[in-house]
Every structure is written in structure tokens, then in C-alpha cells.
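Sequence only, no structure available. Ideas?
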Amino acid sequence: MSDTNIFKVLSDEQRRGILVMLKGGRMNAGEIAERLGITPAALSYHLKMLKAADLIMEYKQKNYIYYEINTTVFEELILWIGQFGGHGEENQEGGRSK
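Reply:
I predicted one. C-alpha cells follow.
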């Protein structure tokens, strides 16, 4: 994962919306901005934050830049979060978790 605080990036509703949209496949900036109803400048800011956290990747194709979700980062995040969900497993002090 990158040095950018992934949780801060994910805390924004519009950035989460962009990720949900990209779950369906690649989209260009114009398509994303239109669906969100935001200005290109606002979208540019959100895309910059998502790229800095490695949550999305961009691909240039002819005159367009397409954005795609980076599932690898989400897989790493799920694995990391999963370590806290071990109900009934031993905790670090050797006792049982409640």
C-alpha cells in the first residue's frame, strides 16, 4: 500500500462513489463526472487522491484516460482488516477473545 492514508481517502462519500462506479469496469473522467454531477476540477481532485492511495489506476487510450479500480489494494486491505475479526481465536495475551 502507498504512504497515503487509505482510510482518509475512503472517508469521502464521493470517492467511495467513484470506486463503486469503477467496480463495474473502466470509465473515463467525463463519464464519472457526469454520473456524480460534479465539476471536472472537483473530479480531478478526487481522482488524484484515489491514485495517491493506489486505489485506482489510469490507462491512456487514444484521446481518453480511463480509470479502473485496483483490486490488489482492496485485497491487501481486507486481509489486514481480517486480522481483527477473529472471534473465538486466541488474542495476543494468550487468552480467548470475547
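The chain has a mean pLDDT of 87.
Hope that gets you unstuck.
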